[in-house]
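Annotators were shown the component list below and the corresponding predicted structure, then asked to write short factual statements about the assembly.
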Amino acid sequence: MSMSVIIILILISVLVATGFLIAFFWAVKSGQYEDTYSPSVRILFGDKKPQKKEEDETTKD
Amino acid sequence: MQKVLSDIDSKLDLKCFHCGDVCPNNEISMEEKHFCCLGCKTVFEILDENGLCDYYDLEQNPGISLKNKDFEDKFDFLGNEKIIQKLLDFSSKDRNKIRFTIPSIHCSSCIWLLENLDRLKCGVLKAKVNFVKKELFIDFNPSVLSLQELVETISSLGYEPEITLEAYQNSKQKKESGSIYLKMGVAGFTFGNIMLLSFPEYFGLDVLDPYIAAFFPWIILTLAIPVFLYCGSDYFLSAYRGLRSGFVSIDVPIALGITALFIESFYQVVSGTGQGYFDSLAELLFFLLIGKWFQSKTYQNLSFERDYKSYFPLATTVIRDNNQEIIPVNEIEVGDRVKIKNNELVPGDARLLSEEASIDYSFVTGESLPDSHAKGDYIYAGGRNIGPVIELVTEKEVSQSYLTQLWNNEAFSSDQKSGAQLLINRVSKYFTVIILAIAVIASLVWWWLDPGKSVLVFTSTLIVACPCALALSVPFTWGATMRVLGRNGLYLRNAEVIEKLSGIDSIVLDKTGTLTEPQLQSVRFVGEKLTEIEEDLVSALAVNSNHPLSRTLVNFLGNRTVPSISEYKEFEGKGMEGRVNGNQVRMGSSKFIEDIQLNTELQSSRVYLNIDGLTKGYFEISNRYRSGLDQLIQDLKRRFKLYLLSGDNEAEKERLGDIFESQDDLLFNQLPDEKLKFVKKLQGFGLKVLMVGDGLNDAGALKQANTGIAITEDIAHFTPASDAILDSSKFIVLDRFMNLSRQSMNVVIASFTISFLYNFIGLAFAVTGNLTPVFAAILMPISSISVVLFTTVSIGFLARKNNL
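Structure shown to annotators:
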């Protein structure tokens, strides 16, 4: 009966895989596959923002 | 524009800091940066003031030229509450959401600037760009910023959004779901897991004790149910839809195959006799979905469905009871007095109330030179007013106008895209019948030999005959061909267009804008040769006018330092005069210069010149044919019947006759619905017609033809509804596109043969009752992958052979 642990292992592995499947669903639903170009550019903008913007943000919230 | 200028004068390399166009002189500059026009400088100033000059660091000269753009009061209609509500996606007291389509989005600087709009304009809450679709999503606070102000701000930066009647009428579009991705994800996930769980079975491992081994099939079954029901749903639906409209699509044998797979495997698991073919089922659907995705990945930012609504303005100014109001164009009634400003379109057929007007019908006919009209003239919808404000009285509603009537033709209502004609569906009819016959005969024979195996043979025949490789041949061949064509400037609406292209035997060409280059005109001076100084005088005068002919002349004369001008006067639709260096210079129509009325058609492309009361001669401006046209026509003539349909007069008949080597198939003075009827007549003779055109006047013929290709100078611009959009600079390689599509049809047929071979091998095992799950799990991927490899490699080879 020592082999029966394999059933638990399999169930866990399927569960983990399902977790990734759900993550994939979320990615599709949130529109990540609709525009594959702008995020690659947008990431380069972040550190270039001048100070004015930061002041605005602190006063806004 | 840029191209024309640089052709003429390449020695000048002073480029506009904002848009990269060549600067005509170095007068407009700021902080050692040069600009080509005041518009570009203004944008720079706005960005500079707001600390947004990072815009220029991301890309070189990212800006959009604002030359000849004028939107003073253009967006006044956005003050109308009813229109605002229709355009907004969401509205509340302090947050409105709206989506704009902005064709001029073209680089990362654009994304950066538009997404930092909140720093430029107070009231913008959030801005996000979808680059692929060229869309901008904006949240703004309506109590701080009105929609009109917002649109004006964006436009003043060069990002003028498209706000058209079409968008207005179906603004609440269904949001595209990524369901193909989800299905692929589910199929891939289950395929992998089922295969892992099937390993003990594949290798016949007996190490597991029976208690645990019995557990495996049940997990597999649980995993397989969503694949069958969710991922397979499209195939059941489409098979059903096809059958209902009377044809057996390729989805029928697929649906049969996966149903047989599921039932047989389900029975095996429940009865405890095995674990079935669930791995093959998931694998099959996974591959099929990849094929579907590969084929359907089309050009999201292009629209192939446009009709006149995309060209027409959303609203116009109407004078009712001495009050001006702005109303949506589809509410205009017969007898309304409308006011049309410079650069606005006439929405419905109307009669001119103002003394005179100059109307540019380039949207309708493709002809770039404006017509002049006098009071009482009938003006057709779709004409663009060039010059001061005019008033008209509407004679027909928008939907009943001369041009828009074209869309009431049955060609637009009948849906010819049923798919029954496609090769794959013609093949699948016979395929399905033969497979069903084999399955029935085999199971009857087994009923006689061994009744217990009869059902198994029946299902396994259907399983192994499931035309996975067959169904993949088409999407991968056409998907690959479509990519090659797209890379070369021909954008197809969908992959099926390739099959239609391959069957074409006659081609109908439009003249203006298709055979000719609308931007490039050849200019010739008839008369005594002008001196340098005289040319300077002409340039000095012409540079002041916005008339297309004047602009052509300025381009023709090239960059020069022009003397200053005084007493400049422009006579709308007639000509202009001014004093340059003490010389009285007059230019314009023959009537204006010499008071002689010539044939109006000839007159429109001639500009007479008079210096100090002496007529020097005239500039003759004519369309220039695309270079390489002769060669293209000769190549096409070898394999296709060629026709020319032009809305223009016969002035060019002889010149075209030389190119076409005969004048018989050249038709002139064709009205939009005559073009449609001509195409229909050809089809009546059993010809498969390809129509190539550009203007709205070709829209009917494009729709009626078996394949319609709309040609455009700028892919982001409007084109009439068509099967494909062709970048005009690639028009001259049309014959290579035709070659490639014909050859890719041969590739499809070859890969059909390969997949039939696999089916034959599989069937041999199935009818003899020897089909095992392992064998099925190996045969399916091998056949699929080999077909995919064969098609993509062949298309790559053919593309290179055709220099594409």
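Statements collected:
1. The longest helix of chain A spans residues 5-29.
2. The radius of gyration of chain A is 22 Å.
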